[in-house]
Amino acid sequence: MVGFSLLMSAIEIMSSAMESIVKLSFFNNFIKTINNPFWGVLIGLFLSAVIQSSSASIGILQSLSQTGSISVSAAVPIILGTNIGTCATALLACISGSSESKKICAFHIIFNLSGSFLWLIGFFIISGIYNLNININSLGISAIHTLFNISTTALMFPAVLKFNKFSQTANG
Asked: Is the pTM of this model over 0.70?
């Protein structure tokens, strides 16, 4: 409970700090850059890799969304990038790990890259049909992030069995 309370307090502090940042012209130009989906993915990837937490990156994005400066078209690529960037933690963990840990790391990377790739294709299709330049709130960001993980897990579930069989065959 204490940890969750501290997390919520930190998000509230970040939200109030973001209000003053949004007024800067540099920040507004930066937000316009994010409207390019590939830049959004790279920004999310970099942010998540640097702070080694996709959850913290999502929290920062939620704080930005409370200022009204983040659209759906900017948030989705950033969310996809944070899911790719979280692989940096797994890469660091498996450097000196066993062969099993390296296989799990490889699957984690494949999972997030393929899920993000498929979602990016879907994003381009949906953005061609609907106008996604509407503001998103923190609940919408949470919903998209959760939907990404659930749908990618559902899509990759059949591959888990094949990957497991491949791993056992590779071990001898």
From this structure: yes
